[in-house]
Amino acid sequence: MKEIKICLPPYKMICAFFFIFILALVRGVSAADEIGPTIDTYIALLTLVLCADTCYQEIPGGAWEILAIKPGKMQRRTIMRRFAVQFVFLFCVAAAGYGMFYLLQNPYIAGKEPSQFFTAMAATAASIVMFEAVPVFFTKITGSLWGSVGASAVLWFFLISSNAVKLPAFLQIFAFGGSNMEAGDMSWLSGKAAALVIGAVCIWAVGDFGRHTVRKKKERV
């Protein structure tokens, strides 16, 4: 419960659900199979904005000093709990957003909806893992929350752009929902596997809490 209160203050939860509601309201879809790729893409954007401060949420109140003196394993465990809490919340937001598209847009249903939903949620989960961890890693190496959000946003824009199709298949993170899926093309799975690997590497590279907060505190002073 402590980590939930720290990671998910009311304003973050309100902003997240407001974001997904507006997305479902203004992002037009004509068929149910368009919902999954839309959720996958835009939940990643929401994730990078909400999670960039994962390691710095204690600084304003000064509680970072208490955490920073604890053993490194305990600090890393705290960070992992925060990652887990945010992942579960964002996954629930994604699932709620999927339902909102149905309620607000009434798309055409082709009859494969249960499998489409579960496939979309699995793809979205991989994107959440990557874009939950990458901003935190960027924050670590830049020492700037806004710089981290900006760098992560640039990466997101590139990966959803037409230039991304020139990358190897395993780097096309948002290939899910591509035009070749109906023909049985499963190459998008390699992109999601890469997203999980990138996310895991970034989480591992984050290290302990103290190194983040001490550096950030010195910069503010």
How would you characterize this protein structure?
There is one protein chain. This protein is mostly helical. The chain has 9 helices and no strands. Helix 2 packs parallel to helix 5 (72-105), helix 3 (35-51) runs antiparallel to helix 7 (145-160) and helix 6 crosses helix 7. Mean pLDDT is 82; it is low at 217-221.
Please describe the structure with a list of short key phrases separated by commas or semicolons.
mainly alpha; 221 residues; 9 helices; 71% helix; disordered C terminus
The proportion of residues forming helix, as a percent range, comes to over 70%
As a whole number of angstroms, the C-alpha radius of gyration is 18 Å
Query: N- to C-terminal separation?
Result: 31 Å
Query: What summary fits the major beta sheet?
Result: none
Shape type:
globular
The whole-number mean of residue pLDDT values reads: 82
How many beta-strand runs? 0
SSE pattern:
HHHHHHHHH
Number of helices: 9
Low-confidence stretches: 217-221
User: Strand-residue fraction?
Assistant: under 5%
What is the multimeric organization of the chains shown?
single chain
Structural class: mainly alpha
Q: In a few lines, what is going on in this structure?
A:
With 221 residues, this protein is mainly α.
